[in-house]
Amino acid sequence: MKQRMGRGLDDVSVAVQGFGNVGSWTARTMHERGARIVAISDKYGGIYNARGIDLRNLQRHVTETGSVVGYNGSDRLTNEEVLTLNVDVLVPAALEGQITSANAHKVRATIVAEGANGPITPEADEILADQGTLVIPDIICNAGGVVVSYFEWVQGLQSFFWDENEVRKQMESKLLNNLEAVIGTTTRRKCTMRTAAYIIAIERIEEAMRLRGFYP
To answer: Taking the CB of the first residue and of the last residue of the chain, which one, N or C, has fewer CB atoms within 10 A?
Structure first.
């Protein structure tokens, strides 16, 4: 982010819709790197604190109560309100179809990072693009789990196993290399990051089929 946008995560305001595996770890990781998590929600509702939410204390609260709702020192929000907060980064990490043509024009985040699969509808995608919102599509934003599953398959074939540090190193390398490829295609073709990611995916499938041929 710092190299591409001239700004690191220090004090970047972030809202996260969803506090499952993706949402909770995203919030925790960004918090550890200096971001200010101002809003988080789960299926019961959301919480907001402009000064930032302490993720460790919040996790203890969730463990004790089963929800982020009621966290001390926060205001309550609905899941819909979390999507329209004036923040630097919005992470919809709950369900698909959360940002639609009905509410996309209310999104005020500078960047929307798709933590969930398909949280933005095609119609909303066009609205966000028109208003200058940068969308990091799910195909690259939440690909870490699939990448690591691939690593597990490869290790199984080779009967050779990496430690956690090696897995993280390999995952980061693959994700960053693909991100650079997407950004490059976005710039050259003057398209959105989602379109660029699809272009690259189709080109890679075509190349693999050309080299390996069709199987019956």
So the answer is: C
Q: Is 173 exposed, middle or buried (0-12, 13-18, 19+ CB in 10 A)?
A: exposed
| Cα–Cα distance, 128 to 125 (Å, whole number) | 5
Q: Which residue has the tokens 């919809």?
A: 92
The pTM score is: 0.88
Which of 100, 101, 115, 96 lies closest to 40 in space, CA to CA? 115
Instruction: Give me the residue spans of the domains in the chain.
Output: 2-141, 144-212
Instruction: Look up residue 175 and give its two tokens.
Output: 């994700």
- Give the separation between CA 64 and CA 62, rounded to whole angstroms: 5
CATH class of 2-141: alpha beta
Q: Tabulate helix, strand, coil % of the chain (nearest 5).
A: 50, 15, 35
Which band of pLDDT confidence, cut at 50, 70 and 90, is reported for residue 216? low
